Structures are given as C-alpha cells and as structure tokens.
Amino acid sequence: MLRFISRRLGITILSVFCLTFIVFILTNLDGNLVKLAKFLGSQRMSSEQVETWLELNGFNQPDVVRYGEWLGVLPSYQLVQDGGKILGRCARPGVSLENTPKYCGIFQGNWGWSVIFKEEVDSIIFKRLALTGWLMLYVMLIMVPVALVIGILAGMREGTRTDRTLSTFSIISTATPEYVSGVLLVALFSSNAVGLKWFKGSSASAMENITFENFTLPVATMALYGMGYIARMTRASMAEVMTSQYIRTARLKGVSFTAIVLKHAIRNALIAPFTVIMLQFPWLLTGVVIVETLFNYKGFGWTLVQAASTNDINLLLGCSIVAVVVVLMTQLISDIGYVFLNPRIRVS
Amino acid sequence: MERLSYFEIFSQIIGHFWPVWIALVVFFIVSYLIRNHTGLYGKLFASPIGLIGLGIVMFWVFTAIFADVIITFDPYGQISGMKNKVPGTPVRGLEGEYYLLGGDRLARDVFSRVVMGSRSVLTIAPAATMFAFMVGIMLGLVAGYLPGKFDTMVSFLANLVLAFPVILLFYLMVSPAIQETGLPTMLAAVMFLFPIAFFAVLVNSKLYTQPMKRNIIVGFILVVGFWIYLGLAFDSDPLGVFSMDPNLLNVFVSVVFANSPTIFRIVRSLALEIKTRDYVAAAQTRGEGTWYILLWEILPNARGPLIVDFCLRIGYTTILLGTLGFFGLGVSPESPDWGSTINEGRKILTLYPHGAVPPALSLMSLVLGLNLLADGLREQSLKD
Questions:
Q1: How far is CA B224 from the centre of its chain?
Q2: Other C-beta atoms within 10 Å of B236: how many?
Q3: CA distance readout (Å), B322 to A14, A22, A34, B162, B317
Q4: A150-193 pLDDT, tens per residue?
Q5: Please, what is the angle between helix A300-310 and helix B166-173, to 10°?
Q6: Which end of chain B is more exposed for a tag (fewer CB within 10 A), N or C?
C-alpha cells in the first residue's frame, strides 16, 4: 500500500513539473513577450527597442533558466540601472536593492507581479480562490446529495417508472452544458421578456454578500450539469449491487426492502460514485470559468479568463499551477480513496 | 403589418423545415425496411429511447444538409431597423416576410443563423471526433497489446493531457502568439498522419498476400491521403481543392488534442482485455502479423463500446466547440455557429433573451439526441 501511494505521489509530482514547464513555455512565447514589452514600455517601440527592453529585463535568457528562476531554484536575474532603478523578477516599485531578494520563485512564496491587476499574483489568486470556494461549496452541497439520491432511487428498482423518469432527467442534465443552462435560466428567471425576475442575472453583488437572490442561478447552473453524470454513475453502480448475491441472500432471509437498500446496498453502491465525484473537480473548473464569466462573479475562473485574454503572464502561470495541482490532487485522492474504500482491491 | 403570434411563429417554423420532414420520413421508412440487414443499427428499432435519439440527430443532420433551402434570410445580412426585434416581427418593406425568431444585436435573422450554424457544428464535431478516434485507436491498440516502454510513455503523456484543464488548453492553443510559432500546424501535421497510416496499415495487413491488389489500393490511399493532408495541414494543396481556414485548423487541432487521450485510454483497456481471448491466440499461432491482429482481430471485437463512445463523444465535442465559441475563441466572431451566437446573445440576455435561447436549445437538443442514441445503442449491444 505504501509503495502504491509513494509511486502515485511520485508520478503526480513529476506531472506537476512537466505541466508547469509546458505552461511556462506556452505563456512565454516570443509573441507574448513582445506584447508584454509594448504594454510595459510603450506601444510605439520599434522591434530593436523591444529587443533591448527584453534584454534589459532578463527575458532573453534560455527558457529553462527562466523556468528555474520562476521556480526559485536559480538566482533571479537582476540589473541595476544608472538611476538606481532595479530591473528583474524580484524588483518591486519602491523597494531598495538591499531589500530585494536573490531568489524569488514559487518555492520562496513569490508568485510574481501581475502587470494588469498591479498586485502580487499570490494575493490575487488566494482572494479569488476564496470567492470560488464559496461557489464550489454551495454547488457541492446541492449537487452531490441530490445526485446520489436520484441515482439510488433510480437504481434500486431498475426499469420502473421512477427509474425511467429520473434517468431521463439525468440524461437531459448531462446534455445541458453550463453555458446553455445558464442562458436558459437567466432568460427564464431574470429577463424582461419573461418577466418572472425572481433572481438576479448578475452575481457581482454576491462577492460581498451572498443572498438567495444573487447566488441561486450560478449554483443551479453548475450543479445541473454535473448532477446528471454523478446520478447516472450511482444508478449504474446501484443497479449492479442490487443484482448481486448478497442482496438476494438478504432478501431470502426476509429482510425488508428498505433495510436492504439502506443497510446493505448503499454502502457498496457508493464506491464508484466516489471516484466520479472526485474526478468531477477538473470538470467543475471549466464550469467555474463559464459560470463566473456568465454571471460576472469575479472569482478564480474569471481571473483565469482575464489573465489569458490580457496575456498577464505571471497571473496566468499562477492560475495554471493552481488548476493543475487541484486536478492532479483529486486524481491522486480518487485513486487512493478507491483502494481504501473497496475491500475487493488489494494493491501489491 | 402585425407581429406574428407565437402559434403562427411555431407553425411557420415547422413549415420552413419541410425538406427535413420529408427526408426524415424517407430515412425512417428505408431504415425500417432494411432493419434486418443492418446489424446493430437495425436493432435500434427495438429501443424507443434510441429511436428518439436517432430522430433528433437525423433532424439536425438533414437541417445541416438542407440549410440553404430552410433559411429565410442571409445569415450574415443585416436589415436596418431589425436590431434586437422580438420574434415574429415583420420585415419592413418586404410583404409577408418575418424575422421568425427575431433579430440579433447586429440586426441579423436569428432563425437563419441558427439553421446555418447547424452546418458548421455538424461538420466540425464529427470530423474532429473521427480524427481523435484514429489517433486514440492507433496508439491505444499498440499500447494495450504490447506492454513496455511505449505503453508507459504514451500513458504518461495521455495522463498529462488529461490533467490539463481543458479551458486553459484552449486559451493557450488558440492565442495568436501560438499561431506564430506554428505549433498548431505541427500538431496538425502529426495528428492528420494518423488516418492515412490507419487506412494504409488496415489494407496492407489484410491484403499482403495479394501484392498486386495491395499495391494498387495502398497506393491509392497514400496518394489521396497525402493530397488531402497537404491541403488541410499545410494549406498547400497543389490543386487547391482542400484547404482549411487557419482559425478553424486551430480549433480543430485543440479539440482533437483534448479528446484523443480519453479515447486512447478506452481503446487501451479494451485491447488489454481482448488480447487474452482465444481467437487472438489462434491468430498468433497462425503466425499473423501484429498489425493484422490489432486491426482485424482486436478492433472489430471492440466495436460495440467504441460505437457507443463515438456517439457520446460527438456530443461532448459539440459541447467543447460551444465552449470555445462562448469564450469567443471559435472560428470567427461572424460565424453563425451556436457557441458564438450564444456568446453574442448573452451580453444582452436580461433585455433580449431571444438571441441566445434558440442556439442554446439547439445545442442542447443535438447533444441530448446523441446521448439518447448512445444509450439505445449500448442497451442493444449488451443484449447479444
């Protein structure tokens, strides 16, 4: 077991480095650096001036070296200009040379400076992640219990009318991506044309104060899409458990149907959905990005879109790391959790 | 002129789809008559769910085919005074002509745009899924059948791509800076090789005992394959028949790239299971080549799950394409594809929802149809 966990952990860490390196290369392409130079310098710079600017600011070093600087395993590039102005990764406006550190990468807790938000990347990301955390919390609180109940009710008596109705609901929900259900829900509940106006079409106010009115639509939008998938997995798993030998034995012993479902079936039927719920997280990330854009809720997903569309390299890198680590961690937990939960699997 | 009532709008729309209804009726009658000769597809008639799914999917397929006949206005044309007009508004100066589903932000006809949009969605999504399947099948079969370094390496790469958040991948792949580096073209150059390799190896492994016939067919595949390949991947078709818009190529490559690792994993696990069967052992004993066993013994026996997954995945790809359009990363902002239209319409959603709701419902119904079809196929294939 320990070997299995350490092996999986090793692969995960290797993946983190590979993926961050790829993202680093892709965000630091020449075209992006030229844009950055023009953004920070001046729009009318000639290509020679851009070249000099990149040289002065240390962007002309090999990518591997700059990745090392960004990680914090190599000393960062620094250049002191005539007027005492410091250039380089570690330099911050108004910080003197003695106070500027030698290493400033992820390992030192320095995520870089966001040129668009004019703030440290880590403080932006953690602020935004907290906002997204609230969204995710409510989505999980709604989505998981409802999906499990639907799946169990549908799977415990396969082929009945309840099963068909609930299965149809879950298949419709998996066919409705967030940008479709979001548009439909907003059109239905908050547009002038229909006139119901029960909820708000924008969740910008939910960043300070979450209310039923401004948070229902984003949560419902996200929960709907994921719900169907989890429900279908639960149903399949439940239906399989209900045909197994020990359920038949229990039946023949004269245990009541309710007792069978509650005591014997549910526990075993929930092993497979556990994996699915954990693997749902990366998918939720795409959902978060869509929902936050649609409802103008300025959380992590919204930040990611801003960083990508304005080409804010450090911020985009920071967001990518968080996203990649979240995805890999959930994969790790789901793998290990599956082994722990399922007594039939023994890893040598 | 008066605005149309909702009933009139509904009946007019039904009327405009007349070629689709005729085609659907013909399609179902023919399919029903030959159902005993069409294998799994014919068995679909025993599954009501699958039939409904097939009906919805075919509705959109025929809509895409007959789009030119169905549309009432030019999907790109703007008519002054029709900006954001509600559904059923008569067009000024044209007797008896209406914007059936209203006008969008740029005064274009929403109905015609949605109908035209089905065309781009229904060509890109199946084609991209097909390419992803070719890549996934070729790599997955080899990795599953021959354990070793190749398997470990490709599996690791596939897991890497899977761990990459899709949305981030799209943002990075579709940025103009990446287009300058030529990375999408390089990826396309690699991925578009797989279909050619697939068909060439497929024929070669079967017909290698008849060299004459083999040479002709494989030669034909290679010539035509590389002709299309030059046109699509490098936009340098000598005859100028095949070409691909660079934006479209980008979108296409990203979608294939995001999809193929999952297919790789499915095919790999199927191959791992099937290679232990007796008929594979028999083929090995006969001395058949590796590629023959992979493509003519293992692959046909994995077709059930693969066909089901193909249907599901076209739906998933449609959703992905919509996501791209939603973030304005799609083909072009002018394009009538559903994702872009939803993106256009969402900005004024609380005031005029009629711009975004029709494409949203269309996309949902197509994906629903594909999911139902996949469910029906799965149910029927498990009955054997």
A1: 22
A2: 9
A3: 33, 26, 31, 20, 8
A4: 999 998 888 889 998 998 899 999 999 999 999 999 888 887 77
A5: 10
A6: C
Chain B interface includes A345 (CB < 8 A): no
User: Which A residues in the span 285-304 are in contact with B, Cβ-Cβ below 8 Å?
Assistant: 285-286, 289-290, 293-294, 304
| Ranges A77-86, A279-288, B99-108, B210-219, most confident | B210-219
Token duo for residue B291: 């590629």
Dihedral of the CA atoms A130, A132, A137, A139 (nearest 10)? 170
Residue B117 CB-density burial (10 A; 0-12 exposed, 13-18 middle, 19+ buried): buried
Residues of A within 8 A of B261 (CB-CB) are: none
Query: What six digits make up the tokens of B141?
Result: 């079969």
A31 to B181: CB separation less than 8 angstroms, yes or no: yes
Integer Cα distance of B98 and B53 in angstroms = 31
Q: Under an 8 A CB cutoff, do B342 and A180 touch? A: yes
Å from A180 to nearest chain B CA?
5
pLDDT digits (tens, 9 = 90+) for B53-101: 999 999 999 999 999 888 888 888 888 777 778 887 888 777 777 888 8
Interface contact A285-B167, CB threshold 8 A: yes
What is the full DSSP assignment across A201-247? S--GGGGT---HHHHHHHHHHHHHHHHHHHHHHHHHHHHHHHTSHHH
Q: Which of B323, B345, B375 sits opposite A286 (nearest CB)?
A: B323
ipTM of the complex model: 0.86
The DSSP bridge pattern shows strands A113-114 and A86-88 to be unpaired
Chain B residue numbers with beta carbons less than 8 Å from the beta carbon of A312 are: none
Q: Among B161, B104, B101, B105, which residue's Cα sits nearest to residue B135?
A: B161
Q: How confident is the model at residue B263 (pLDDT cuts 50, 70, 90)?
A: very high
CA closest to A190 among chain B residues: B350
Dihedral (C-alpha) B252, B257, B262, B267: value to the nearest 10 degrees?
Answer: 90
Rounded to whole angstroms, what are the CA distances from B103 to B69, B70, B76?
20, 17, 12
| Residues 6+ away with beta carbon under 8 Å from A229 | A147, A170, A174, A276, A280
Chain A residues 166-225 with a CB less than 8 Å from chain B? 171-172, 174-177, 179-180, 183-184, 186-187, 190-194, 201
DSSP, collapsed to helix, strand or coil, labels residue B381 as helix
